[in-house]
Amino acid sequence: MNNLIKILIVEDDMIIAANLSVQLTSLGYEVTGIIPRGEEAILHIRGQSPHILLMDINLKGSLNGVETVKIIQKEKNIPIIYLTANSDDATFEKAKETQPKAFITKPFNKLSLQRTIALVVEQLKDITETYQYLPQVEVLNDRIFVRHNGRMEKLLLDEILYIEADRNYCVLITSKVKRILTCTLKVMEEKLPNATFVRVHRSYIINLSKLDVLADRHVEIGRKVIPIGKSQKIILMQRIHTI
């Protein structure tokens, strides 16, 4: 399974980061990047979706490691392993609030790194195998239940603004939360009531009741500009005229 596991290293000491990368690669893992700043890590994770995040707890810059993780966890459910040297008790307690899978003390050795990553990978594998048998999305009348942090969370259909495709996943957007769904946009299209929800692009389903602007080539919901696909435009106009 190692060759399927992608790991992002967020560490501002480039010597430590390079050493980590070499060790992880030699163990058969794929390093998606070596990043020194929290802001860059947030952008990287949105684009690359690594399976595990190695995060320096005392990251320099405008965001430290814990603050960076808290922002990431609002959008992604990703296992965290903190890298730490001599953290004070207050920082350690804040780090614990983000429920990391492990802490690796610097300077680290290869055996410690190998065992820690292997344990997290096993947990990740168990979660993945369990999720294959659990429903990820259930739609009932005026509400949808989505799996989040191991439980089914209720959202009213009227709260949904739009749903965006992210490869084999979807991102469900409301005015308050984002939820990553482990299903395709096509699955969501089949589950949602077509009287309210319409696919306007290969990557987007929108809630017609939340539509703010209808232009020739795009729609707007809030401040989000969403393109209209050529093949979906006729269907969109038909649905609008039947509201």
Task: Set out the fold topology.
Layout: E1 6-10, H1 14-26, E2 30-35, H2 38-48, E3 52-56, H3 65-73, E4 80-84, H4 89-96, E5 102-105, H5 110-131, E6 137-140, E7 143-148, E8 151-156, E9 160-166, E10 169-174, E11 178-181, H6 185-191, E12 197-201, E13 204-207, E14 213-214, E15 218-221, E16 224-227, H7 230-242
Parallel strand pairs: 1-2, 1-3, 3-4, 4-5
Antiparallel strand pairs: 6-7, 7-8, 9-10, 9-13, 10-11, 12-13, 14-15, 15-16
In round numbers, the mean pLDDT is 86
Query: CATH fold name of the largest domain, please?
Result: Rossmann fold
Q: How large is the radius of gyration?
A: 21 Å
How many separate domains make up the residues? 2
| H/E series | EHEHEHEHEHEEEEEEHEEEEEH
Strand order of the largest sheet: 2-1-3-4-5
> Structural class of the helix and strand makeup?
alpha/beta
Count, helices: 7
Distance between the termini: 50 Å
Overall geometric form: elongated
Strand percentage lies at 25-35%
Number of separate strands: 16
* Residue windows where pLDDT falls under 50 for at least 5 positions: 129-135
**So, the CATH homologous superfamily of the largest domain?**
Response regulator
Overall CATH class of the largest domain: Alpha Beta
Largest sheet: number of strands, sense, barrel closure: 5 strands, parallel
Fraction of residues in H or I helices:
25-40%
CATH architecture of the largest domain: 3-Layer(aba) Sandwich
Domain Response regulatory: 6-121
InterPro entries: Bact_response_regulator, CheY-like_superfamily, LytTR_DNA-bd_dom, Sig_transdc_resp-reg_receiver
Domain HTH LytTR-type: 144-211
Organism: Maribacter ulvicola
